TrEMBL record:
It is a multi-pass membrane protein. This is Porin. GO terms for cellular component: cell outer membrane; pore complex. Residues 1-20 form the signal peptide.
């Protein structure tokens, strides 16, 4: 009986350790503002205009980012990122779901990272942390 309890406890510890090695993160950014235009010219003359603006500084987005530890310093990674218009909820990037980013890859502590799919250019990886808004 004690062997069965010990085996069950050991199995529970191993399952908990395996669970702690993977992660999925839900993230997002909502950028909406109010734009006031003074003396906006139209065919009916000039007037002022106040309107809600979606994505005034950065595009609004939500996404899933994850990693699974494969052992030996190797991780499987993925990102799915969707852009949307705050004003009406429509998809950005031509109406594609996960149109901003959708990629998978492998990351190694010794050899670096390789990814495949739709993703930002490498310039964003280098310059993004220096952005005024502090976002990627």
């Amino acid at each position: 009986m004690k062997k069965k309890i010990l085996a069950a406890a050991l199995l529970g510890v191993l399952a908990n350790t395996a669970h702690a090695q993977s992660s999925v993160t839900l993230y997002g950014l909502i950028d909406v503002g109010i734009t006031y235009t003074n003396s906006q010219l139209t065919s009916h003359g000039g007037h002022s205009n106040v309107q809600e603006t979606s994505g005034a500084v950065d595009g609004s987005r939500w996404g899933l980012r994850g990693a699974e530890d494969l052992g030996g310093g190797l991780k499987a990674i993925f990102t799915l990122e969707n852009g949307f218009n705050v004003n009406n909820g429509t998809f950005g990037q031509g109406g594609r779901e996960f149109g901003r980013q959708a990629f998978v890859g492998l990351s190694s502590t010794d050899y670096g990272t390789v990814t495949f799919g739709r993703q930002y250019s490498s310039m964003v990886d280098y310059v993004g942390p220096l952005a005024l808004t502090g976002t990627e």
